[in-house]
Amino acid sequence: MSVIAVSNLHKSFGPVHAVKGISFTVKAGEIFTIIGPNGAGKTTTLEMIEGLLQPDQGNVQLLGLSWSSHAEKLKERIGVQLQTSAMFDLLTVEEHLDVFRSFYKRKRPVSDIMKLVNLQEQRKQRVKGLSGGQKQRLAIGLALINDPEVIFLDEPTTGLDPQARRNIWEIILNLKELGKTVILTTHYMEEAERLSSRVCIVDQGQVVALDTAKALIQQISTEREISIQGSIVEHVQDMAVFANKINSVKRVETDGIEMQLLSTSPEQTLLELFHYTTECGYKVEQINIRDWSLEDVFIALTGKEWRD
Ligand SMILES: Nc1ncnc2c1ncn2[C@@H]1O[C@H](COP(=O)(O)OP(=O)(O)OP(=O)(O)O)[C@@H](O)[C@H]1O
């Protein structure tokens, strides 16, 4: 069943056509990630689904309901963490959760939330003393206080250090374990690849691609890049001549003691190549098989470099 169904969403701000006909559906229990560069239209799309912005055109169905007829019901059933959260510097973590809890009929115990977002030790700490990562975890905790079925997280890890980012990833994966549906936006390709059930790549207000990260990556190429480092330039040149004759090898380039191959079957290519180097007594110092990433998908589909 679709928890979210958006069709043909459009939104302009004056002359800026920020969202140009976005459509997708999100299934129950998915971590659905909208990824795209700055200004791609991610937040605008999210805010139209969250009921914070009125679309100029198009339709949003959330939990089978629409904002125009069921706003109050929907607010009880969703949780929203905005890109920037206004908090009260002098209130503690626990006090924040208590205040937000009072806004809802349906609620989860504060102790549960503190455990979920790993803030038990900071429960008596005032917000002004929290680190960036802790503040962000509290913002997520506030979005969870009504035990929502659908949780919207708008760039929850932007600006955080790698460890703090990983802590948030863990929370998001736990939400999936709890059966929640999570809609996430991010700039970070690695994050999208690690967390998402499906990834929606957005650029200039439009969906460029939508699928699992694995399927998107497979779609751009069945070829893999293999880098090999030898020890003597002449040997590497011989290896390149040999590699060029291997059926599964589509391209060979050398640069000094480095050789790069594009292969449709890395295992087969390496097997044949090692057979050759062993026979010739050539030394191979290092091998690296590069995985394609979502970044490669973005570049292949838009012709643009990814700007993190
Ligand atoms: N309230 C607004 N008034 C005017 N222009 C806006 C407004 N909100 C967004 N825009 C413009 O709409 C476009 C899409 O913005 P949006 O914030 O949705 O992008 P985004 O993908 O979320 O970007 P970021 O990753 O930087 O948050 C941008 O060109 C932005 O400047």
TrEMBL record:
CC terms in the record's Gene Ontology section: plasma membrane
UniProt key word Membrane: yes
Pfam families: ABC_tran
Record GO terms (molecular function): ATP binding; ATP hydrolysis activity
Keyword set, alphabetical order: ATP-binding, Cell membrane, Membrane, Nucleotide-binding, Translocase, Transport
Gene3D superfamilies on file: P-loop containing nucleotide triphosphate hydrolases (3.40.50.300)
Name of the protein in its database record: ABC transporter ATP-binding protein
